[in-house]
């Protein structure tokens, strides 16, 4: 492996395993709920707890990465995810709550840690694609959970399946140890962070370019979760698709997101600077959301599928190019701190977006209003980013 490929492989693998761990309980929620004697609908609260914990841990990760090293932090994340799954296997509501918090604590710092590593090891002209490729680990984790966890449940029961995924996280932490000497060579054991846990937010607000991106990522993250959370329900209730067909459309949208992450990274490296590409992605997201709001049973299914795939390519595909731009703008050696701070806003959008969407739809009785309002908001965000992109580039 060359100097940039090795770090990419290890960060991608870590990202995929932690992502798979976070998707495991939602995948087997019906089995777990039946065993515990609770409603499977509580999985929504479980996921919200994961992202609330991720908001906090991503913010704090900037204090840990310089001192411990990004690989060590990643190992702790994997072990935290494994511990979260072990608590889930106990099978009570209190331990499920502990499980979600531990999974979120492990999920939050993984991206800042990997950004710290890739910012050091990736040539500037390949950062967009490499960051985007690494970020495919998130949907890849979802694919792995969907493909493997049901079979593990059949073979070992739901609790056994949870423990197997947890064991995989432990094994990955051991594998990561083989790279620590090289990738954590920049750690500073004597690093002392301030007592203010909100320091990363102060750093971001002192850097206008990163501040603007962070605030926009709140809406991007909200839109991403609203697409994946409500699309199947919208297509079945408003467009009239069968559940299986609507699920297939969502899968195609997720696939579009994976392809989009790679495509936008490639475009950002070769054709269009990320600061100019992100406004276009925001406006494309907006148009996709507005088109989705306009779906009626008279629309041909092929058009609905194409819009959904493009919606996924933009609303799911923006992350890598965004993180590459944050890492580029951050002062040398501080990509992890700035990424952790910006992800606080991203995860906040993930937590706040679906409930806001639900309130909009409850008030009107139509999911179309939610997609329409979010689409209009993203159009404004895209125009704002386009105006910012026209300004001269400020030096770091």
UniProtKB/TrEMBL annotation:
> What Gene Ontology terms describe what this protein does at the molecular function level?
transmembrane transporter activity
What residues form the membrane-spanning segments? 36-57, 69-90, 156-176, 213-233, 239-264, 276-295, 301-323, 335-357, 369-390
Q: Which residues form the Major facilitator superfamily (MFS) profile domain?
A: 1-394
Q: Which PROSITE patterns match?
A: MFS
Question: Which UniProt keywords are present, listed alphabetically?
Answer: Membrane, Transmembrane, Transmembrane helix
Signal sequence span is none
Protein name according to UniProt: MFS transporter
Q: Which organism is it from?
A: Pseudomonas matsuisoli
